[in-house]
Design a protein that fits this description.
This protein is α+β, with helices and mostly antiparallel strands. The chain is built from nine helices and seven strands; from the N terminus they run H-H-H-H-E-H-H-E-E-H-E-E-H-H-E-E. Helix 1 runs antiparallel to helix 2 and helix 7 packs antiparallel against helix 9.
Protein backbone atom coordinates (compact mmCIF):
# COMPACT_ATOMS: atom_id res chain seq x y z
CA UNK A 1 0.00 0.00 0.00
CA UNK A 2 1.43 3.36 -1.05
CA UNK A 3 1.96 5.83 1.80
CA UNK A 4 0.43 9.23 1.04
CA UNK A 5 2.80 11.46 3.00
CA UNK A 6 0.95 14.70 2.23
CA UNK A 7 -2.19 13.33 3.94
CA UNK A 8 -0.16 12.20 6.95
CA UNK A 9 1.46 15.63 7.11
CA UNK A 10 -1.94 17.37 7.06
CA UNK A 11 -3.22 15.01 9.78
CA UNK A 12 -0.23 15.69 12.05
CA UNK A 13 -0.56 19.43 11.47
CA UNK A 14 -4.24 19.39 12.41
CA UNK A 15 -3.46 17.22 15.46
CA UNK A 16 -0.75 19.63 16.62
CA UNK A 17 -3.18 22.57 16.46
CA UNK A 18 -5.73 20.60 18.46
CA UNK A 19 -3.13 19.81 21.16
CA UNK A 20 -2.15 23.49 21.45
CA UNK A 21 -5.79 24.53 21.81
CA UNK A 22 -6.38 21.80 24.43
CA UNK A 23 -3.32 22.89 26.44
CA UNK A 24 -4.51 26.52 26.45
CA UNK A 25 -8.00 25.58 27.66
CA UNK A 26 -6.52 23.22 30.30
CA UNK A 27 -4.24 26.01 31.51
CA UNK A 28 -7.15 28.43 31.94
CA UNK A 29 -9.34 25.87 33.76
CA UNK A 30 -6.42 24.86 36.01
CA UNK A 31 -5.71 28.48 36.95
CA UNK A 32 -9.31 29.09 37.93
CA UNK A 33 -9.55 25.89 39.95
CA UNK A 34 -6.34 26.81 41.79
CA UNK A 35 -7.81 30.17 42.68
CA UNK A 36 -11.01 28.49 43.84
CA UNK A 37 -9.23 25.82 45.89
CA UNK A 38 -6.96 28.45 47.40
CA UNK A 39 -10.07 30.33 48.43
CA UNK A 40 -11.51 27.25 50.18
CA UNK A 41 -8.67 27.43 52.72
CA UNK A 42 -9.80 30.89 53.80
CA UNK A 43 -12.55 31.78 56.20
CA UNK A 44 -16.05 32.55 54.99
CA UNK A 45 -15.46 36.29 54.58
CA UNK A 46 -12.37 35.75 52.48
CA UNK A 47 -14.20 33.15 50.33
CA UNK A 48 -17.04 35.61 49.75
CA UNK A 49 -14.45 38.22 48.73
CA UNK A 50 -12.60 35.88 46.33
CA UNK A 51 -15.70 34.36 44.68
CA UNK A 52 -16.58 37.42 42.54
CA UNK A 53 -12.93 37.84 41.54
CA UNK A 54 -12.79 34.18 40.41
CA UNK A 55 -16.10 34.56 38.57
CA UNK A 56 -14.98 37.69 36.72
CA UNK A 57 -11.64 36.05 35.94
CA UNK A 58 -13.54 33.24 34.17
CA UNK A 59 -15.76 35.79 32.36
CA UNK A 60 -12.71 37.81 31.28
CA UNK A 61 -10.77 34.78 30.08
CA UNK A 62 -13.86 33.46 28.26
CA UNK A 63 -14.25 36.85 26.58
CA UNK A 64 -10.58 36.86 25.56
CA UNK A 65 -10.89 33.35 24.13
CA UNK A 66 -14.08 34.40 22.33
CA UNK A 67 -12.33 37.41 20.77
CA UNK A 68 -9.37 35.24 19.85
CA UNK A 69 -11.62 32.60 18.26
CA UNK A 70 -13.69 35.27 16.43
CA UNK A 71 -10.52 36.89 15.07
CA UNK A 72 -9.10 33.51 14.07
CA UNK A 73 -12.30 32.54 12.26
CA UNK A 74 -12.59 35.93 10.57
CA UNK A 75 -9.02 35.69 9.28
CA UNK A 76 -8.74 31.97 8.54
CA UNK A 77 -12.30 31.06 7.55
CA UNK A 78 -14.55 34.04 6.80
CA UNK A 79 -11.97 35.89 4.70
CA UNK A 80 -11.19 32.92 2.37
CA UNK A 81 -14.89 32.01 2.08
CA UNK A 82 -15.78 35.61 1.18
CA UNK A 83 -12.97 35.69 -1.40
CA UNK A 84 -14.16 32.42 -2.96
CA UNK A 85 -17.81 33.53 -2.93
CA UNK A 86 -17.02 36.83 -4.66
CA UNK A 87 -15.00 35.00 -7.31
CA UNK A 88 -17.76 32.46 -7.91
CA UNK A 89 -20.35 35.24 -8.29
CA UNK A 90 -18.23 36.73 -11.09
CA UNK A 91 -17.85 33.33 -12.74
CA UNK A 92 -21.62 32.74 -12.57
CA UNK A 93 -22.11 36.18 -14.17
CA UNK A 94 -20.00 34.98 -17.13
CA UNK A 95 -16.64 36.59 -16.30
CA UNK A 96 -14.16 33.81 -17.06
CA UNK A 97 -11.15 36.12 -16.76
CA UNK A 98 -11.42 36.22 -12.97
CA UNK A 99 -8.73 34.44 -10.96
CA UNK A 100 -9.26 34.10 -7.21
CA UNK A 101 -6.16 35.16 -5.21
CA UNK A 102 -4.61 32.41 -3.08
CA UNK A 103 -4.59 32.63 0.71
CA UNK A 104 -1.05 31.35 1.25
CA UNK A 105 0.06 30.24 -2.18
CA UNK A 106 -0.80 27.95 -5.07
CA UNK A 107 1.22 25.03 -3.71
CA UNK A 108 0.38 25.43 -0.01
CA UNK A 109 -1.32 22.75 2.11
CA UNK A 110 -4.16 25.10 2.95
CA UNK A 111 -7.52 23.49 2.09
CA UNK A 112 -8.97 26.77 0.88
CA UNK A 113 -6.04 27.15 -1.53
CA UNK A 114 -6.84 23.68 -2.91
CA UNK A 115 -10.43 24.80 -3.56
CA UNK A 116 -9.24 28.08 -5.10
CA UNK A 117 -6.80 26.22 -7.38
CA UNK A 118 -9.61 23.96 -8.58
CA UNK A 119 -11.87 26.94 -9.28
CA UNK A 120 -9.10 28.83 -11.11
CA UNK A 121 -8.32 25.78 -13.25
CA UNK A 122 -12.03 25.34 -14.01
CA UNK A 123 -12.36 29.03 -14.94
CA UNK A 124 -9.37 28.79 -17.27
CA UNK A 125 -10.98 25.80 -19.01
CA UNK A 126 -14.31 27.62 -19.25
CA UNK A 127 -12.55 30.64 -20.74
CA UNK A 128 -10.98 28.41 -23.39
CA UNK A 129 -14.32 26.76 -24.16
CA UNK A 130 -16.04 30.14 -24.41
CA UNK A 131 -13.36 31.39 -26.80
CA UNK A 132 -13.74 28.28 -28.95
CA UNK A 133 -17.53 28.65 -28.92
CA UNK A 134 -17.33 32.31 -29.95
CA UNK A 135 -14.79 31.53 -32.67
CA UNK A 136 -16.89 28.59 -33.83
CA UNK A 137 -20.01 30.75 -34.22
CA UNK A 138 -18.03 33.46 -35.97
CA UNK A 139 -16.39 31.00 -38.35
CA UNK A 140 -19.65 29.18 -39.08
CA UNK A 141 -21.31 32.50 -39.92
CA UNK A 142 -18.44 33.44 -42.21
CA UNK A 143 -18.28 30.04 -43.91
CA UNK A 144 -22.03 30.04 -44.55
CA UNK A 145 -22.16 33.64 -45.78
CA UNK A 146 -19.43 33.13 -48.40
CA UNK A 147 -21.18 30.45 -50.51
CA UNK A 148 -24.55 32.12 -49.99
CA UNK A 149 -23.16 35.39 -51.34
CA UNK A 150 -21.73 33.60 -54.40
CA UNK A 151 -25.02 31.77 -55.01
CA UNK A 152 -27.00 35.01 -54.66
CA UNK A 153 -24.74 36.94 -57.04
CA UNK A 154 -24.72 34.26 -59.74
CA UNK A 155 -28.47 33.70 -59.42
CA UNK A 156 -29.05 37.43 -59.87
CA UNK A 157 -26.89 37.43 -62.99
CA UNK A 158 -28.77 34.41 -64.39
CA UNK A 159 -32.07 36.23 -63.88
CA UNK A 160 -30.83 39.27 -65.80
CA UNK A 161 -31.35 37.51 -69.14
CA UNK A 162 -28.30 39.16 -70.74
CA UNK A 163 -25.87 36.27 -70.37
CA UNK A 164 -24.63 34.13 -73.19
CA UNK A 165 -25.40 30.38 -73.03
CA UNK A 166 -21.81 29.50 -72.08
CA UNK A 167 -21.87 32.11 -69.29
CA UNK A 168 -25.17 30.73 -68.02
CA UNK A 169 -23.67 27.25 -67.91
CA UNK A 170 -20.58 28.57 -66.07
CA UNK A 171 -22.67 30.42 -63.47
CA UNK A 172 -24.99 27.45 -63.00
CA UNK A 173 -21.94 25.25 -62.42
CA UNK A 174 -20.60 27.75 -59.84
CA UNK A 175 -23.95 27.72 -58.03
CA UNK A 176 -23.91 23.92 -57.97
CA UNK A 177 -20.37 23.86 -56.55
CA UNK A 178 -21.18 26.41 -53.86
CA UNK A 179 -24.37 24.55 -52.95
CA UNK A 180 -22.35 21.35 -52.53
CA UNK A 181 -19.79 23.21 -50.43
CA UNK A 182 -22.55 24.57 -48.21
CA UNK A 183 -24.09 21.12 -47.90
CA UNK A 184 -20.71 19.58 -46.99
CA UNK A 185 -20.13 22.31 -44.41
CA UNK A 186 -23.46 21.68 -42.66
CA UNK A 187 -22.93 17.90 -42.80
CA UNK A 188 -19.47 18.20 -41.25
CA UNK A 189 -20.71 20.59 -38.57
CA UNK A 190 -23.45 18.12 -37.59
CA UNK A 191 -20.99 15.20 -37.59
CA UNK A 192 -18.47 17.09 -35.48
CA UNK A 193 -21.17 18.23 -33.06
CA UNK A 194 -22.40 14.66 -32.61
CA UNK A 195 -18.87 13.38 -32.14
CA UNK A 196 -17.93 16.08 -29.61
CA UNK A 197 -21.11 15.50 -27.61
CA UNK A 198 -20.56 11.74 -27.78
CA UNK A 199 -23.87 11.17 -29.53
CA UNK A 200 -22.13 8.79 -31.89
CA UNK A 201 -21.10 5.62 -30.09
CA UNK A 202 -18.60 3.30 -31.77
CA UNK A 203 -20.00 0.04 -33.10
CA UNK A 204 -16.82 -1.95 -32.94
CA UNK A 205 -16.19 -5.10 -34.88
CA UNK A 206 -13.18 -6.91 -36.25
CA UNK A 207 -12.54 -6.04 -39.88
CA UNK A 208 -9.76 -5.92 -42.48
CA UNK A 209 -8.15 -2.48 -42.35
CA UNK A 210 -5.99 -3.18 -45.41
CA UNK A 211 -9.08 -3.66 -47.58
CA UNK A 212 -10.74 -0.54 -46.18
CA UNK A 213 -7.69 1.61 -46.92
CA UNK A 214 -7.60 0.38 -50.53
CA UNK A 215 -11.33 0.99 -51.00
CA UNK A 216 -11.12 4.53 -49.59
CA UNK A 217 -8.10 5.31 -51.74
CA UNK A 218 -9.85 4.14 -54.92
CA UNK A 219 -12.74 6.52 -54.18
CA UNK A 220 -10.34 9.39 -54.99
CA UNK A 221 -9.02 7.86 -58.23
CA UNK A 222 -10.71 10.42 -60.49
CA UNK A 223 -9.11 13.33 -58.63
CA UNK A 224 -5.57 11.97 -58.54
CA UNK A 225 -5.72 11.00 -62.22
CA UNK A 226 -6.89 14.52 -63.07
CA UNK A 227 -3.81 15.94 -61.29
CA UNK A 228 -1.60 13.20 -62.76
CA UNK A 229 -0.35 12.14 -59.34
CA UNK A 230 1.82 9.12 -58.67
CA UNK A 231 0.27 6.88 -56.00
CA UNK A 232 2.68 4.66 -54.03
CA UNK A 233 1.33 2.08 -51.60
CA UNK A 234 3.00 -0.18 -49.06
CA UNK A 235 -0.01 -1.87 -47.49
CA UNK A 236 0.54 -4.99 -45.44
CA UNK A 237 -2.11 -7.59 -46.24
CA UNK A 238 -4.87 -8.69 -43.87
CA UNK A 239 -4.21 -6.23 -41.06
CA UNK A 240 -7.12 -6.71 -38.65
CA UNK A 241 -8.35 -4.17 -36.11
CA UNK A 242 -11.28 -4.01 -33.70
CA UNK A 243 -12.86 -0.61 -34.36
CA UNK A 244 -15.85 1.16 -35.87
CA UNK A 245 -15.24 0.87 -39.62
CA UNK A 246 -17.65 3.67 -40.56
CA UNK A 247 -16.03 6.17 -38.21
CA UNK A 248 -12.51 5.33 -39.35
CA UNK A 249 -13.54 5.73 -43.00
CA UNK A 250 -13.98 9.44 -42.15
CA UNK A 251 -10.32 9.52 -41.13
CA UNK A 252 -8.92 7.86 -44.25
CA UNK A 253 -11.12 9.84 -46.68
CA UNK A 254 -10.14 13.15 -45.07
CA UNK A 255 -6.42 12.30 -45.03
CA UNK A 256 -6.45 11.11 -48.65
CA UNK A 257 -8.48 14.13 -49.76
CA UNK A 258 -6.05 16.53 -48.07
CA UNK A 259 -2.98 14.75 -49.46
CA UNK A 260 -4.34 14.93 -53.01
CA UNK A 261 -5.59 18.50 -52.61
CA UNK A 262 -2.28 19.89 -51.37
CA UNK A 263 -0.04 17.77 -53.58
CA UNK A 264 1.54 19.52 -56.55
CA UNK A 265 0.66 18.56 -60.12
CA UNK A 266 2.43 15.31 -61.09
CA UNK A 267 3.43 14.92 -57.46
CA UNK A 268 3.37 11.80 -55.31
CA UNK A 269 1.08 10.49 -52.58
CA UNK A 270 2.32 7.59 -50.46
CA UNK A 271 0.12 5.37 -48.28
CA UNK A 272 1.59 2.82 -45.86
CA UNK A 273 -0.09 0.34 -43.52
CA UNK A 274 2.09 -1.68 -41.17
CA UNK A 275 1.56 -3.76 -38.08
CA UNK A 276 4.15 -3.36 -35.32
CA UNK A 277 3.58 -5.77 -32.43
CA UNK A 278 0.30 -4.61 -30.80
CA UNK A 279 -0.05 -1.43 -32.91
CA UNK A 280 -1.12 -0.63 -36.45
CA UNK A 281 0.45 2.38 -38.15
CA UNK A 282 -1.18 4.10 -41.11
CA UNK A 283 0.77 6.93 -42.75
CA UNK A 284 -0.32 9.21 -45.57
CA UNK A 285 2.39 11.36 -47.20
CA UNK A 286 2.34 13.91 -49.98
CA UNK A 287 4.89 16.02 -51.86
CA UNK A 288 2.82 19.17 -51.47
CA UNK A 289 3.43 22.62 -50.05
CA UNK A 290 4.03 21.42 -46.49
CA UNK A 291 3.00 23.30 -43.37
CA UNK A 292 4.80 25.69 -41.04
CA UNK A 293 5.34 25.05 -37.33
CA UNK A 294 2.69 27.64 -36.47
CA UNK A 295 0.14 25.95 -38.73
CA UNK A 296 1.09 22.57 -37.26
CA UNK A 297 0.11 23.75 -33.77
CA UNK A 298 -3.41 24.64 -34.91
CA UNK A 299 -4.01 22.12 -37.67
CA UNK A 300 -6.60 20.08 -35.73
CA UNK A 301 -8.63 23.13 -34.67
CA UNK A 302 -12.05 23.71 -36.19
CA UNK A 303 -12.11 25.99 -39.24
CA UNK A 304 -8.34 26.51 -39.18
CA UNK A 305 -6.89 26.60 -42.69
CA UNK A 306 -3.17 27.25 -42.90
CA UNK A 307 -3.07 27.41 -46.70
CA UNK A 308 -5.72 29.94 -47.71
CA UNK A 309 -5.05 29.30 -51.41
CA UNK A 310 -7.09 26.09 -51.04
CA UNK A 311 -9.81 27.62 -48.84
CA UNK A 312 -12.48 27.22 -51.52
CA UNK A 313 -11.84 23.46 -51.59
CA UNK A 314 -12.67 22.86 -47.92
CA UNK A 315 -14.12 24.27 -44.75
CA UNK A 316 -11.44 23.61 -42.13
CA UNK A 317 -13.44 20.88 -40.37
CA UNK A 318 -11.87 17.75 -41.90
CA UNK A 319 -8.89 17.42 -39.56
CA UNK A 320 -11.01 18.38 -36.55
CA UNK A 321 -13.26 15.44 -37.43
CA UNK A 322 -10.20 13.22 -37.88
CA UNK A 323 -8.79 14.15 -34.47
CA UNK A 324 -12.09 13.56 -32.71
CA UNK A 325 -12.58 10.14 -34.33
CA UNK A 326 -9.03 9.10 -33.42
CA UNK A 327 -9.64 10.19 -29.82
CA UNK A 328 -12.84 8.12 -29.70
CA UNK A 329 -10.91 5.16 -31.11
CA UNK A 330 -8.31 5.72 -28.35
CA UNK A 331 -5.60 6.08 -30.95
CA UNK A 332 -3.05 8.74 -31.75
CA UNK A 333 -2.36 10.96 -34.75
CA UNK A 334 0.80 12.93 -35.45
CA UNK A 335 2.00 15.17 -38.27
CA UNK A 336 5.46 15.77 -39.66
CA UNK A 337 6.05 18.36 -42.36
CA UNK A 338 8.75 20.30 -44.15
CA UNK A 339 7.62 23.58 -45.65
CA UNK A 340 7.75 23.35 -49.44
CA UNK A 341 8.49 19.62 -49.48
CA UNK A 342 5.48 17.78 -48.12
CA UNK A 343 3.56 16.43 -45.14
CA UNK A 344 3.10 13.04 -43.47
CA UNK A 345 0.18 12.15 -41.18
CA UNK A 346 0.64 9.02 -39.06
CA UNK A 347 -2.24 7.29 -37.27
CA UNK A 348 -1.56 4.73 -34.56
CA UNK A 349 -4.30 2.28 -33.48
CA UNK A 350 -4.47 -0.85 -31.37
CA UNK A 351 -4.17 -3.99 -33.46
CA UNK A 352 -6.60 -6.91 -33.22
CA UNK A 353 -4.90 -9.46 -30.97
Amino acid sequence: MRIEWHKIKKFLKAGWRLIIFFVMIAFVVTCNFLLFLHGMQMDEAEVRAMAPITFWNIILLTLLFGIFDFTRRAWMVTRPVKRIREGMEKIVAGDFTVRIPYIKGENSDNEFDSIIKGLNDMTAELAGVETLRTDFISNVSHEIKTPLAVISNYATMLQSGVLKPEQQQEYAKAITEQTKRLSDLITNILKLNRLENQQIYPEKKTYNLSEQICECLLMHEYVWEKKQLEIETDIEEDVLIYQDAELLSLVWNNLFSNAIKFCKEEGRVTVEVKRLEDKVLVSVSDTGCGISQETGRHIFEKFYQGDTSHATQGNGLGLALVKRVIDIAEGNISVQSVLGEGTTFTVSLDAKT
